[in-house]
Structures are given as C-alpha cells and as structure tokens.
Amino acid sequence: MLGIVRRNVGGAGGLYSQGFGRLRPVASAIRNYSSGGKEMTVRDALNSALDEEMAADPNVFVMGEEVGEYQGAYKITKGLLDKYGPERVLDTPITEAGFAGIGVGSAYHGLKPVIEFMTFNFSMQAIDHVINSAAKSNYMSAGQINVPIVFRGPNGPAAGVGAQHSQCYGAWYGSVPGLKVLVPYSSEDARGLLKAAIRDPDPVVFLENELLYGESFPVSAEALDSSFCLPIGKAKIEREGKDITITAFSKMVGYALKAAEILEKDGINAEVINLRSIRPLDRATINASVRKTNRLVTVEEGFPQHGIGAEICASVIEDSFGYLDAPVERVAGADVPTPYAANLERMAFPQIEDIVRAAKRACYRSVPMAASA
Fold first, then answer.
1. Which of 96, 215, 271, 311 is catalytic?
2. Which CATH number fits domain 236-363: 3.30.565.10, 3.30.70.660, 3.30.70.141, 3.40.50.920?
3. I want to staple 239 with a disulfide (CB 3.0 to 4.6 A). Which of 88, 189, 272, 303 is the partner?
C-alpha cells in the first residue's frame, strides 16, 4: 500500500532534554501556497496566539518542561517568561502525570492552563488526567464543572526518533467523549485554532506537527488581528475539485495538495479537505464533497485500524453510500511500530505518490492493488 518517494532529511540538529537525537528536514515537499502577502511560520503563529491570549486574559498560563528558561523545546513559548513572569510560565520537572494533574485541578478553579507536552508520545504518562480527570468531569458533574484546559505539543512522526516517539494520537483522543481534538496545518490554522482552544470552556487536545513548525504560510490581515478565532469543528476546503475528494489533517494536508497537483496533470480534478478538527468531525463538509465528487481518499499518518480514515469511511457509508462510484481508499501509516532505519521509516508513512496511486485507483485509472500484488 505504501510506496516510497525521496524525502530530504538533514543531519542531527538539536536534542531533547532527555537526550534523544532528532533529524531535521532541510527541505520540505509540503509547501503549497502563493508567495504573495505576509507570511508567518507555524512556530510564530502559535507563539503569537499564546502571547495575545495571555495578554487578554490573566487566567491563562503555560506549564510544561522547558517552557520558560529554555524558551520552549521548539521555541513556541519564546519570550513569554520575560513578559509574563514565572507565575504564568511555569517550568516543570519531567513528570507529565504531575503537571497535567495540576493543570486540570487549576482549571477546576477557573484558571485556563495551557499544558505543553514535549511530544504527545509523553502524554501517555498523563492520559489518566486527560481522559478521566479532564474529559469526563463536565458530564459527571451534571455540567457544574467546566475544565477549560488545553493540552498541546507535537504529534505524530518527526524523523529518525523511533517507535516510541513517532505515534499519531489523533484516533486515540478523537474517540473520547468530552474532549475536543484540533489538528492545525497552516499558520492561519495554528493561530485561529489555538485561540479557539484557549477560549473554549472544555478540554482541548491540540495536536501540532514538529516538521511544520518552521514552515511559512501566507496569513491574511484578518488572521493577524488579536480577535481572530477559527470555529472548532469546521473543516476547510483547501482546493476545490469535482472528480475525487481527499481528506487529510496536519502535515498530510500539504502532501494531499501536492498529490492533487500531480493528479491535475492526468486530468483528475481533486478536492482537498483540511479537517482542522478531529473531534468534533465536520461530517457535513465531507459528505457534501463526496456527494459532488462521488469518490473518496482519506489520508493520515496514524495506524490504519480504528483510524480517522475508518471513521470518515463509516460516516460516508452511512450518509452518502448511494453517491459513491468507487470503494473508499484509505492511505495510512503501516500497521507496525515505526522503524528507526530511515529507509524503512519512509515506507511506514504515507508519501505523495501513495495518495496519487490511491486516487487513480478510485478513478479507475490504474490496475487495482489486489490485481497488481
């Protein structure tokens, strides 16, 4: 199912405080935007959103490993300690269960914590607080307790960090009632969705992507306004088309857009949907698109079984089955722990040409996978 395309990977650069080496991309295949207008990196978009929300509401504070003195492991919190002081930008020990629990408790009392996990793989240490303490409290208290907390940090694979640091948690947290799960792609997504998450009265899991932090995207004047906020639960049609629908989130949106450009050369006009939100999922936009194009490809970096693509497929089968002219195609990560070797790692996650092949199969432009195996 999964093919290989070249991916430029640089040498080691930067370390976790825990000592895990990282490979950084020196070039990206996911940049798909015009050069006009003001541009902003995803890193700066997140930083500015945090800054503005902290300035607007004294109840907002940031807590996590290296968020203060070190300016953030990925510099998302750069400058916030100097501006707001150690009472609102709190460095913690390496104890995710501890500071996540403290964050939930403070949210019970009306504060608005933004908890940073250095990677969402480490949220496994705190998952009891995320799910049992945060997600369920509003329901179990009959609406008497709100938990306005944001859990944010990089999610999914980076490069060369092995199976324990490369997992996508979209499907994990997306299955939990009481949570909202957001997945930004562009700088405008990052700014608008993080502001929405901080202002929301319910717990929000905010899944970023490490390899997108340094990517620059155009931002509108509206998005630069301090009052800017994107609606939670609303997808964005990044590219309109009529022949096939491609859904994706986070880094895979860029891959889907690049695949759509390649498909256009073969006469296939693809519509690309940036999900933005996994829970709630914008089923209406997805189904409306499928009813127009009559074909669907879902793309994600997570495992295929019980994944986001499986949920989207179920929604389309339930609501728009009569409109489908071909089976739904799912492009996902391989059903194995992430390999450490670079060549195997590339095979374990979707590449642009995997999306192209899946779209062509759905449009009956290539030999079906089973026949070619």
1. 96
2. 3.40.50.920
3. 272
How confident is the model over 92-137, as pLDDT tens digits? Answer: 999 999 999 999 999 999 999 999 999 999 999 999 999 999 999 9
Which DSSP letter does residue 126 get? G
DSSP single-letter state for residue 234: -
Q: Assess whether 96 carries a catalytic annotation.
A: yes
129 included as an active-site residue: no
The token pair at 17 is 């405080």
pLDDT of 29 strictly over 50 = no
Q: 39-224 in CATH: which number?
A: 3.40.50.970
pTM metric for this prediction:
0.88
Q: Which entry of 165, 208, 215, 345 is annotated as an active-site residue?
A: 165
- Reduce the DSSP state of residue 316 to 3 states and report it: helix
